[in-house]
Amino acid sequence: MDPVTLETDRLILRAFAAVDVDAVYDACQDQDIQFYTPAPVPYRREDAEKSVCEDWPEGWATDKNYTLGAFRKGSEALVGSYCLTRISQGVLELGYWAVREQRGQGFSVEAARALCDWGWATLDVHRIEWWAMVGNTGSRAVAEKLGFTVEGTLRQRSVANDGKPHDWWVGGLLRP
């Protein structure tokens, strides 16, 4: 599938391009992104190049992972990365991270809602899941504002970048 461009009142969501590598690299220096997401630690410029120029375009090409960057209208400042990933037949997972300076302004809810709405309208899905490490209260707040039902806590679901197993929240959003 070819990448799409989505627009909200304040944001443009589009496929990342090579010109975005530095912004992704800078954003991913944030310790919270490195702790709460599967970002490599340390996060190198080469990691940003691989994500932007190889991994994310490959996701669209294989119809498995739909990653868009959210950028503020006018300034074109990177707000964050938002993706839907196919995890099984009819089920997607919503994932996101936001640039530290862009948090707390409602951008993540706005961007994730636009992406989920696109997913419902375009992809053959009946459920979107959200996962976050326990303690990632910002991610949980976004998910709850989007209407996700937090369905449980999985004990020691995965090992984080600190080398220790952590509990994870899981939530679901069903087709409206």
Automatic annotation (TrEMBL):
What InterPro entries is this protein classified in? Acyl_CoA_acyltransferase, GNAT_dom, Ribosomal_N-acetyltransferase
Q: Say yes or no: keyword Transferase present.
A: yes
- GO MF annotation list: transferase activity
Question: Does the entry feature the keyword Transferase, yes or no?
Answer: yes
Which SUPFAM superfamilies does its entry note?
A: Acyl-CoA N-acyltransferases (Nat) (SSF55729)
Residues annotated as coiled-coil are none
- Pfam families for this protein: Acetyltransf_3 (PF13302)
Q: What class of enzyme is it?
A: transferase
This protein's superkingdom? Answer: Bacteria
Looking at the record, the residues that make up the N-acetyltransferase domain are 11-175
Protein EC: 2.-.-.-
The protein's UniProt keywords, in alphabetical order, are: Transferase
Q: Name it.
A: GNAT family protein
The source organism is Streptomyces litchfieldiae
